[in-house]
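Example for tutorial group B:
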């Protein structure tokens, strides 16, 4: 019974430390994806604004 309790407690501690490490990596990946999405949105938005201004200049 002691061995089982020791194994269970060790698994809990290892899982907790793994989740703490994973949280940092997940944060980095999320920040990277957010930066890519913001860049894509900025590029697309700029193209739309330029196209819209080009059409109003022709009128």
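The residue assignment follows.
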């Amino acid at each position: 019974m002691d061995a089982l309790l020791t194994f269970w407690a060790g698994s809990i501690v290892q899982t907790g430390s793994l989740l703490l490490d994973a949280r940092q990596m997940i944060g980095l990946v999320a920040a990277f994806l957010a930066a890519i999405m913001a860049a894509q949105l900025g590029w697309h938005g700029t193209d739309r604004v330029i196209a819209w201004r080009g059409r109003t200049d022709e009128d």
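The mean pLDDT is 84. Compare this with the pattern of hydrophobic and polar residues in the output above.
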